[in-house]
Automatic annotation (TrEMBL):
Chain residue ranges for the region called Disordered: 1-50
Protein name (record): Ankyrin repeat domain-containing protein 50
ANK repeat ranges, renumbered to this chain: 138-170, 171-203, 204-250, 286-308, 320-352, 353-385, 420-452
SMART domains tied to this protein: ANK
Keyword vocabulary terms for this entry: ANK repeat, Repeat
PROSITE patterns, sorted: ANK_REP_REGION (PS50297), ANK_REPEAT (PS50088)
Repeat recorded as keyword: yes
InterPro entries: Ankyrin_rpt, Ankyrin_rpt-contain_sf
Organism: Melipona quadrifasciata
Keyword check for Repeat: yes
Superkingdom, natural source: Eukaryota
Gene3D superfamilies: Ankyrin repeat-containing domain
């Protein structure tokens, strides 16, 4: 198992704010495109336009009668009137300035994008039906903006005027995607009743049901401002209209994996009921199941529901041979770790590299979960296929509290060697952990154990510290009698007065003594 967090579906963005572009840390799922809010469009005097249509515009006016111009700055009076919801002014401008109806602003939005209510929207749509399905620079039609605003009356008017209910933006997000992530349950039902496809995927394969499952979680709700009850209502509505519970995104994840990652027990159970027993065991392209996803995020209630109510096996492994316990322990989720052990998981299960949950927890310096594993029979003497032990991983993490706990609990683990002769002191010297070096030396670590590198060179702990430029560690090791592998080749002896004789030491013997026997799989 890689020590990093498994690729779990993360957040989708909240309703777009004006003039802000949010960055997305987890690229495992596609964010919904942020854009400037049409409600807060500012007026700019000195309206200008360009007769050149940018190459990004592929939409053409159906009637070919009105001028198609893109404003470089500002907006037309008609756009301002639509934004302010002034229906009387809109009707007057539609008659007086008919030539400006087809104009676009610099984001390629027309007057219908600016409409704030059903009254103005109906008037513009009736006067210029070719604008109903016109996309802006990011592919959003007026119907996209209407569902984002949650204006059901405007949505109904646009649908009555021929709006495409399955229109997608440039990232493949449909009108239903946006209604789902914005928590507009009434709009969801309205567009579904109008013929929206409930399982249409975006460019990354995420269906509206995927996003609804994620919105049901507490973590997602905090960012999206979608109440959990609303998220569940949207999810139930999608299932009611036949959304595919087994739909997969580009990574092979089904909606139940998204729900487990978000920590929504209710969504997990609803999807499991809709998908049968197969949903709980569904795995993505890396073999990760819903149980892996819940454990990696520390969602203990989801873990319990998946095992006890959905039939998930606590020892199910992914393609790397890692169980849910590996992820919970590695990422420091103590409650989830204890629960999975209580549900019957094997504390000493090894992955394809021979790593146990204890080895993975030690690698990340997770003292609390390592203690829990030890209490439930997790071996502190476990080795990987290369002979790496718990102490090696703990030293690499640099957490001195973990080293002290091992020294008290299992002091003999602090001086074991891998198959190539590397001891925890070598690791500490290579990483420059001075306090860890001191703790190991205080607990009797061998000072001049010999390591054979991948290039066949021999190296002591002092060599390791000097090689990496850690002079403080090198000085400490020298103070305790450390020397280099080169000096070990020759030792001075003075058998007679005035006579100096050199004795050569067979480093192959030193190396073989330092080398640990091959470990058995625990």
């Amino acid at each position: 198992m890689d020590t990093k967090t498994p690729p779990i579906p993360l957040k989708v963005q909240e309703k777009p704010k004006p003039k802000q572009q949010e960055s997305v840390a987890d690229v495992s799922l596609p964010p919904l495109t942020p854009y400037r809010n049409h409600r807060q469009k500012q007026k700019t005097p000195g309206t200008q336009w360009s007769r050149d249509v940018p190459s990004a515009i592929r939409y053409q006016d159906h009637q070919k009668k009105r001028p198609y111009r893109v404003l470089q700055i500002g907006a037309t009076p008609l756009m301002h009137a639509c934004q302010q919801g002034d229906r009387a002014r809109v009707l007057r401008l539609l008659k007086e300035q008919e030539e400006s109806i087809g104009y676009r602003d610099r984001t390629l939005r027309n007057a219908l994008h600016y409409c704030m209510d059903a009254g103005t929207g109906g008037a513009v749509a009736a006067a210029a039906p070719e604008l109903v399905n016109a996309p802006d620079a990011e592919g959003h039609t007026p119907l996209h903006l209407a569902v984002i605003a949650g204006d059901t009356q405007l949505v109904a008017v646009l649908l009555a005027n021929g709006a495409d209910v399955n229109a997608k933006d440039l990232e493949g997000h449909s009108v239903l995607h946006w209604a789902t992530v914005c928590g507009e349950a009434e709009c969801v039902r309205l567009v579904l009743a109008a013929g929206a496809r409930p399982s249409t995927p975006d460019l990354r394969g995420g269906s509206p049901l995927h996003y609804a499952a994620q919105c049901c979680g507490a973590a997602a709700t905090a960012e999206l401002a979608v109440p959990k009850k609303v998220g569940l209502k949207v999810l139930q509505t999608l299932l009611e209209f036949g959304a595919d519970v087994n739909a997969k995104d580009e990574d092979g994840r089904q909606p139940i994996l998204w729900a487990a990652s978000a920590g929504s027990v209710e969504a997990v159970l609803a999807l499991a009921r809709a998908g049968g027993s197969a949903a709980a065991g569904a795995a993505d392209k890396d073999g990760l199941t819903a149980l892996h996803c819940a454990a990696s995020r520390g969602h203990a209630r989801c873990v319990e529901a998946l095992v006890n109510l959905c039939g998930a096996h606590p020892d199910h492994v992914d393609d790397n041979g890692c169980s849910a316990l590996h992820y919970a322990a590695t990422l420091g989720h103590a409650d989830a770790t204890a629960l999975i052990l209580k549900l019957g998981a094997d504390p000493n299960r090894q992955d394809r590299k021979g790593r146990t949950p204890a080895l993975c927890a030690a690698a990340k310096g997770q003292l609390e979960t390592l203690k829990i594993l030890a209490q439930h029979g997790g071996s502190l003497y476990a080795r990987t296929i290369r002979g790496t032990g718990v102490a090696h991983e703990a030293v690499a993490s640099g957490r001195i509290e973990l080293i002290k706990w091992l020294a008290k609990k299992r002091p003999s683990t602090l001086d074991v060697a891998t198959h190539d002769g590397k001891t925890p002191l070598h690791v500490a010297a290579l990483h420059g952990h001075l306090d860890v070096c001191k703790a190991l030396l205080d607990n009797g670590a061998r000072i001049n154990a010999v390591l054979r590198t991948s290039k066949g060179n021999l190296m002591t702990a002092l060599d390791a510290a000097l090689y990496r430029g850690h002079r403080d560690c090198a000085k400490l090791i020298q103070m305790h009698g450390g020397t280099t592998a080169q000096k070990l080749r020759m030792q001075k002896t003075v058998p007679n007065k005035g006579q100096v004789r050199y004795t050569y030491v067979d480093l192959q013997n030193l190396y073989s003594k330092a080398k640990a026997p091959k470990s058995r799989r625990v």
